[in-house]
């Protein structure tokens, strides 16, 4: 019996750029709109059902409506399609409908597990487009692979997708192209970003690892302190400078956004919808390209840093960060958002699993205030706590000179080793 995607040992994700024709772009938009409509329709029915259940008086009309909504939510695929006949159009992917329903139910499950995520909200109509489909394999197929499913690679430059047909793509890693026979494709996401570029993201699974796990012969451990002045300082005293990608284009982006606002105001004064205002749409794309460039630069930088740390060390220890609380400091919010600390910690976590290394986080309490040599904590006795302006200090107990960030990184590493 063929294993399911979840039963396979190793999982991987890949995102490639595609180049659809005009008709394929129309189909992507239709499926994206239908996916959003189904999600919002389920959300609307659930909200209506909640309000109707608050009515304690047994009104027949209310009871009948509750039964109707409950029946539709039990089988939303047919219930919504019967009420909205256009969802049965031949252009729409049936697997898109199934994935929209699954995503809505997953949002509720996430709310039940993590209440901070909030209840599902309505998806707004935006410039971006996105929907999901699934790769299906024939039941009698002995060896499912990347070349024989409903989503499949035709060659090294073309991919076959349900309803869309053949599309040219680029950006697939060579290591995946060379081992198509033992890799399966799962959920597939087709998307368009704000700049008008189209992508396909695929979930992959295999019985063999996608990367070779590195040996742990050196037993090298390192602690890292994340800060704003220098992006990262490790326990060996090495410093990674903060590239400040957003600051570099802040003026250019602000100028482009002001121009966009003026064009939006002019279009509204002339009673023209923004989607039909060509000058506005042209400027909107310019703003999106600037923002995308910054996001790509930051992501590339974080990938390089995280991969280097994981490959060269068997244990990486970092401090636990609560970015949501830190962003409440308006004086530092822009700098904190620009460095991408949460993204870095996420990369370190999954890359450690991928390469067979260890990554842990520790409570950062007093890591900057404690002397690594003698353990004296600033603020004790007659001493004052260090402020953000104190980048260097001398321990009043043992007289050891410290560089603040390097000392903090050593304390983080020490806490990590104790917790093992």
From TrEMBL:
Domain called Probable transposase IS891/IS1136/IS1341: residue spans: 217-329
Domain Transposase putative helix-turn-helix as annotated: residue spans: 13-42
InterPro entries in UniProt: Cas12f1-like_TNB, RNA-guided_DNA_endo/Transpos, Transposase, Transposase_put_HTH
Cas12f1-like TNB domain segment(s): 341-412
Pfam family, one: OrfB_IS605
Transmembrane segments: none
Keyword line: DNA recombination, DNA-binding, Metal-binding, Transposition, Zinc
Gene Ontology molecular function, alphabetical: DNA binding; metal ion binding
GO BP term, pick one: DNA recombination
Similarity comment text for this entry: In the N-terminal section; belongs to the transposase 2 family. In the C-terminal section; belongs to the transposase 35 family.
Protein name: Transposase
